[in-house]
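Model it.
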Amino acid sequence: MDVIEIIRVSRDSLMGNRVRSFLTMLGVVIGVASVIMLVSIGEGARSYIGRELGNLGTNILIVVPGKTSAKGGFHPPAATTVRKLVYDDALIIKKRSRHIQDAVPLILGTSKIKYLNQSRDNSVVGITETYFEIRNLSVESGRFISASDVDSRRKVCVLGRTVKKDLFGDKNALGALVAIGDGKYRAIGVMEKKGVTLGIDFDDIVFIPTTAAQELFDTDSLFNITVKVRSATEIDAAKEDIRQILMKRHAGREDFTIMSQDEMVAVMGKILNIMTAVLAGIAAISLLVGGIGIMNIMLVSVRERTREIGIRKALGAKNRDILLQFLIESVTLSLIGGTVGILFAGLLSLVIPYFVEFLPTHLALWSVIVAFLFSAAVGIFFGVYPARKASLYDPIKALRYE
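Modeled.
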C-alpha cells in the first residue's frame, strides 16, 4: 500500500467513529488551550506591568528606607530602618548629583477629608512641585502644587477625580476649603482622570505639599524619595551617586534601598515566569492525560478491528503498512486536537480582556509552536504502542478473532 492509500484508510476509520474521535481529541484540545492561555496571561501581565510603569514616568528611581535585596520585593516597613529618610536627604541628592534631574520627598498617610456634610477617609500624599511632571500626571482644572506652596508650607490641595466627585458632585471645587485632619486646605486643582495603575487608584488620592504633610501627620519621615534621572544611560551612575551621598549622611550605613523601574519589572517578571512555568506545567499534565486517552482509544480500536487487520494482511499488507495506518490515526487525532486547541486559545485571548479588564493577555507565538509540537509528540508517543501491537498480529489468528 502506498502512503496515500494508508492515509485514506485512516481518514475513513476516523470519520466512521466521529463521536469517539471527537471525545478522544477533547483532552488534547483542553490541554493545548490551557498551556497557551496560561502562557498568554503571563505574557500579558508582564507587558501590562511594563506599560503601566512606563505611564508613571521613565528614568525613575525609588529610594525607600530600609535595606532589602532587589530580588526580595518592594518597600520594607519603615519601622525596620536604622535611620529614616528625611526631607533634606532628597534636597541633597538633587543638589549633589549631576545625573539627577529631580528628587521628590514623598510622604504618604491617611486622613479624614471633609467638605460641608460630605466626608471620607482618604489617602493623602505629600509631594513637591515636580512630582506631577515626572509621574506624567495632569490636572483637569486649576493648577499643580507650586514651589511657593511647598516653601511656604501653604495648606493647599489637589483632589483626585473620585474625591472631587464624592465631596462636591458636579459643583466647582476650586477655591473651596476642604478639611483634612484638623486643618483647612484650599482646593487649587482637580486631577485629570488617571484610573488604577499597578493597584494605585490615582483618582482617589489627595495631593498636598510635602511640608504641609509633615505638619498634618506630625512626622519628618518620608515614605520614599522619587528620583528622576536625566537619561536612561545615567541610571547606574545616579544610583551610585545616591548610594554614596546617603551613606555619608547615614554614618556609612547602607540602610536604604534604591530600585529602578526596570528592576521592579524584572522582579515581577521573575515571579510571573515561575508562576507561568508552574501553571503551564500543570496544564501540560492534562495534555499528557489527553495522550493517554488517545492510546486507550487506539487500543480499543485495534481490538475491534482485529479481523480487518487479518484481512488486510491476507491481501498483502505488510506490518509496516498496519503500523503506519494506526500511527497516522493517533497523530491525526492529536494534531487536529492541537489545532482546535490553538484556535480556542486564540479566541479566548481576544475575548477575555474585553470582559475581564484586569486580566490582560498576549498570545505568544513560541507558546503556540511549542504546544502544537508537543501535541504532535503526544500523538506519536502514545500511538506507537497500539500501532505496533496491531502490526504484529498474526494474520491467521486475526482472521479467527471473534
